[in-house]
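Journal club side-thread
Mid-discussion, someone asked how the predicted structure for our own chain would compare to the paper's figures. Pasting it here so we can look after the session.
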Amino acid sequence: MTGDANVLDAVVVGAGWAGLGVSHALARKGLRHRVLERGRIGETWRTQRWDSFKMNTPNVQTIMPGDRYSGSDPFGTLTRDQFVALLEDFARRNGLDVEPDTRVIELIGGSENGAYRLATSRGDIWTRNVVIASGGLNCPVRPAFSRALPASLHQIDASGYRSVADLPLGVVLVVGSGQSGCQIAEELAEGGRKVFLATSRVGRLPRRYRGRDIMIWLVESGFLDVRREEVIRLAGRLPPRGLLGVEHTISLQALSARGVVLLGRLAGVEEGGALSFAGDLDENMRFADDASANVRRYIDGYIQLCGIDAPASEPDPAETVAARVPDPGIGSLDLAGAGIATVVWCTGFRGDFSWVRLPGVLDPWGQPLHEDGVASLPGIYFAGLDFASTRKSGLVLAVAEEAPRLAEHIFERSRHSR
């Protein structure tokens, strides 16, 4: 580093919706910054989403800062490729300085001028502030016992699934009944595959309720503005996102009616190689049902409190259909005997922050430590993390609120350090 002129005000790592949103806010503050992207704009969306993937927020909410939806389908949803095109268009229209194919190898504290050094595949960059927007949900997590399964078994993660046709012939076991697991299980069943689904304790949302898309109600009512601390207090931890079907409600009972064989939680591998499942299927179904009922009651209360003229609720086919649950329940499953050729792991994601070599920024599991996206180490920030500040955090519609707040923080810090 040769002097202050070569030190940027900020560097944003990652050119997804969060990174681009922060870049937009930094530019509006007149801050000198660059956006570093390991691949292309929206790389994770390009490479870790299946072919038929669609956003689960309506178009009217899938917008970037400063934009307003003006199309003809406000309550439709964008495909994977349409969303990537939206990000590219946003960066182009706003003249954002995105440097593709620039991988960050290491982030360390610099001894000169209190700046940070980013070692990248294109050389070193010095900056006073770093916004880490590389994603907190892009590294799939599998249980350790997955390594004990036969080598002949085709194993992929939700991020590696593309289509029914890409899988080997045979039965498919989907592990995890959250957002990805249930959508993939539904697509596989519609594609003619026999599917086993190992369920988990995940809430569920109706797609529509009382005349509106559920996301419209959740934003308008303030449900998504509940603070992170309150979410943890209510659930005892940060819960997984509730299951929300793209164009219709998805429930475990509706999946079973389509022919998906429901199982309890995958507990492990038995001595002979068979898979064992917990006896919690009924509990998992009931948990999802209760979560949906709680959300509907919340919206009913909001409608009544505000005197909104909304139509009465109507039965949702996905919630009224009778489940076809194995009786007795399946506690053990022989892979070969069941004809299972593929396991799709939908067991969660974490972020890869191994390149961050700074004290006090990551927890013992290598995940961010922060408050509202601000780390304890001055000049280090996180953007786009799930539940970072509120229930809304981690959704595209949150960036319009969170990016300006981070930019203001960086602006004030930069102003005082000059």
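Post-session note: The chain is about 30% helix and 15% strand.
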